[in-house]
Amino acid sequence: MATVNISVDGKKIQGETGQTVLQVAREAGIYIPVLCDHPALPPEGACRICLVEIEKQGTLQPACTFPATDGLVIHTNTERVRASRKFNLELLISDHPLDCMTCEATGDCLLQDLAYEYSVEGDRFEGTKHHYSINDPNPFIQVDRNKCILCRLCVRACREINGVEAISVFYRGFGAYIGFGADSHMADSPCEFCGSCVAVCPTGALWPKMSLGKGRPWEVERIQTTCPYCGVGCQIILEVKDNEIIKVDSAWEGPSNHGWTCVKGRFGWDFVHHPDRLTQPQVRRYLLEGSQPKPGPADRHPEVAGDPWEWVETDWDTALDITAQKFRQHRDESDPRSVGVLTSAKCTNEENYLMNKFTRQVIGTNSIDHCARL
Amino acid sequence: MPVLKNREDLAHLRTSAKAKLKEKTISGATIFIGMGTCGIAAGASDVAEAVRTELAARNLDTEIVSVGCIGTCANEPLVDIQLPGKPRVTYAKVTPKMVPCIIDEHLVKEQIIKKWAFAQLTNGTGSAEDGLTTYDEHPFYRKQVRIALRNCGMIDPESIDEYIAVDGYRALAKIVNEMDNEDVIDEMKDSGLRGRGGAGFLTGVKWEFCMRARGYPKYVICNADEGDPGAFMDRSILEGDPHAVIEGMAIAAYAIGAPEGYIYCRAEYPLAIERLKKAIAQAHEYGLLGENILGSDFSFELKVKEGAGAFVCGEETALIASIEGKRGEPRPRPPYPAVSGLWGKPSNVNNVKSYAITPQIMLKGADWFSSIGTPRSTGTAVFALTGNIENTGLIEVPMGITLREIIYDVGGGIPKKKQFKAVQTGGPLGGCLPVDALDTPVDFDSLTEAGATMGSGGMIVVDQDTCMVEFARYFLTFASAESCGKCVPCRIGGQRLLEVLTRITNGEGTLEDLDEIEYISEYMSEGSLCALGQLTPGPVIASLRFFREEYEAHIKENFCSAGVCAGMFTYEIEAELCPGCGLCVKACTSDAITGEKKQPHVIDQSMCIQCGACYQVCKLGAILIKRKHEIVPLETA
Nearest-CA neighbor of B174 among B53, B314, B89, B296? Predict the structure, then answer.
């Protein structure tokens, strides 16, 4: 890659051929505001917020699409540029609900930040506003088109990250809006609910239904962790408030997933605080007490205290001892082939490998399978 | 049909085709019927049927040729009669009822019906008949120079032989034999041809960019997505002379090194698409398209892609996206299509007219072309002349001609003795010019300087009865509805601008609204992604610049002087002018007009619904548009 030298606000910086002005500036730590660009996605040039003045160019140019070439002299914050940005923000706000007090995205909304930065007032333009209903009946994502600024990040995320193309723009001009499949509901479209669209949405237009009303961005602790659902090892960011997970966000630096998650990683976290979740090992009372002979179904009396079939909480050592003892008993006293093992996708490759060894060499059976085959 | 293997084959074919064409005019009679979309819309199909019936009834086997539009659309349907050795005589506004008479008098008795005849074309087929103007002398044609339209209405667009007979494909044969691609590009550059789509970029330079760009394959694309309201230049060329466009594209492909091309034609032009496809098939059969054209190394394939009806697809990057099967939306340039166009490959996009002119430049030379027009805008300009003008139609005039000449000489002036008010050039994204600007030369730079644009060729003339605020609002309604919705300034700015204009035409405007118009317009032009958004405010800004007093009258006095905006004017009868003929009384739909016969009449304002019927019927101009008596003072005014 050849190096290109450009000047941004008087600062000489370097980039590579093929990069856009925005990319080069971003790497050099120069701030250019933008709504429709995301480092993980191809540029669009739609929001016109990143307009900059490039010498020898007649009109303002979007930094997000303009190729960085040698010798460009760029001004990112002139009066002309700021006036143009402010106009575009005024237009966006003129068709946007001014309900920041109750909006989920408050504090995590690029439009809000820019409106503040550019002192945009809500009533600059009076005119028609859209009033779309918020009725997408899917379990995961709230779709509020009134807050959509048509930056199309969701469209690109769906196409480029998940490769599904469930989201696209319908109609044109002022009547254009984001829609799903053949303009139906999200659940009727090819959507897999990976939630990448939610992660890139710069406003409150797409929001996880499970997180509604759970907390403000400044109230949460963001903890990067590994998704527990499978062995891929996706990095996710848990947004935790009062020691409770309220949302999962994309960890764009994650080496194995680069911000992408599946539906489970993004929305399958409600088990963590679920009242039915087992937090300690449990064993049948008769196993714990070593009752002989094994009680039959007729001995089952759930309503009576001391029922031999009752689940009793115990410690790990006890539970594992009982398990090991039962394995040994079956292997030694009857045929090892009476034992079968089913492993889980939640295990890592290494864990699955160990289970394979254990089943074939320790137990002595080939009856091992994996849930991903079911 | 035999494949033409070389230049000599083409020359032989040309000789025989020419002979055939000549024979037609010498030995047999021919009837030409204008069967462009304009002709068909005016009833040419019925006329053609009547001609066939009449010929059959008289047992005549006279040849009937369907030709494209010759330009004088106001006079459609047109029927030409060509008798052996006689001039070709055009009859205008022909109805099926007139057909038997024309055939009887002219075809059989060889007597020209002068009261119906429009003009005659001598063309070396006999001397002109007395008492009938020739095309060359006809006021509509006298100032015209027809290069792009040279064959429209003259030859059968469905016959490649007729095109070859008028030197068709000769330019292609010349370049593949005599010139290399750089020669072709130099010739184009020397000709000074500027893109006829509207932007006016030098065609030769554009070709050179594409030729020098790295990437393979390259594509040549013809932009035939003509979407301006009231514009039909490209359609007429595609319907009337499709081979010229094909030949022009083949020349461009040779220059650029493109093996493939697309004609992107809007689906609303079914006849143009049909004729194009037919023409491409014919060119293929002769080997003028396909592999090793005329025995050379040059191969070129051409496809027609139908557009789905979006105005914005006339923007080259949106057009390319549409060909690729994507949503027709523009993308920011750079990179320009010459570097990264169709499927990311170097592509050259030109307008229909640019391609139609190309073969003539190659054949007659850059010097010939640049001798026409002005130094910076060479050649001719094609306009679809419409609106309140006598001779609506398709015209081709040398660059540098004044608007006045076009409107009054070629166009015949304003009908019904009304006053000229404005002329809109550049289509819905152009601008209107007032009477003071009538002496502006028509070329790319002068029109832009005057406050309008050259555009693709729409020219709409309006008279005193047009409200310029409503006129601007009309174009704005179109442009904002056709915004693709991708970028913010165009998507929302267009809507907001339209809302301001609507307020004014509804009588709810304030003087601050005029500042608002200027504010929105400035930043829409500054920030929009493509030319559609950048130029959407054009008509508004031009009308505000030249007709500000009309805007102010709407706002301050609640008065629409053109009598267009509802509730903002009254009709009054000027007693001195009213002879009491009673026509207005009969026309009035709400019994609002009373008066004794031969005495001035009066309109009862409480009954009048401002329908305008009386205004239309009064032959003496006694009905005037007046301010409403009760002027509502506006606090802000």
Answer: B296
B129 vs B122: CA distance, rounded Å: 9
CA angle B534-B539-B541, nearest 5°? 80
C-alpha to C-alpha distance for A18 and A32, rounded to whole angstroms: 19
User: What CATH number has the domain spanning A3-77?
Assistant: 3.10.20.740
pLDDT along chain B (637 residues), means of 10: 87 91 75 91 94 92 89 93 88 94 91 91 75 90 94 92 94 95 96 93 97 96 93 94 97 97 96 96 96 95 94 96 96 94 97 97 96 96 95 95 96 93 93 95 95 91 95 96 96 97 95 96 96 95 96 95 90 92 92 91 90 91 84 49
Size of interface A-B (CB pairs under 8 A): 102
Its sign, for the CA torsion A99, A100, A105, A111, is: positive
Strand partners, B30: B63, B82
Q: Give the DSSP H or E segment for A167.
A: strand A167-170
Q: What number of residues does chain B have? A: 637
- What's this model's pTM, rounded to 2 decimal places? 0.91
DSSP string, B160-218: HHHHHHTTTTHHHHHHHHH--HHHHHHHHHHHT-B-TTTT--BHHHHHHHHHHS--SS-
Strands, E assignment, B274-389:
301-307, 347-351, 380-387
B527/A87 Cβ within 8 A: yes
**Optimal mutation site among A59, A89, A174, A178, interface B, most CBs of chain B within 10 A:** A174
Whole-complex ipTM: 0.90
pLDDT in tens, A54-105: 999 989 999 999 999 999 999 999 999 999 999 999 999 999 999 999 999 9
> Considering only alpha carbons, which residue of chain B is nearest residue A67?
B334
Q: What is the CATH number of domain A126-267?
A: 3.30.70.20
Let me know: does B372 contact B399? Beta carbons within 8 Å.
yes
Question: Which domains, from first to last, does chain B contain?
Answer: 19-132 (3.40.30.10), 160-369 (3.40.50.11540), 380-466 (3.10.20.600), 469-556 (1.20.1440.230), 570-626 (3.30.70.20)
- B494, A173: Cβ pair inside 8 Å? yes
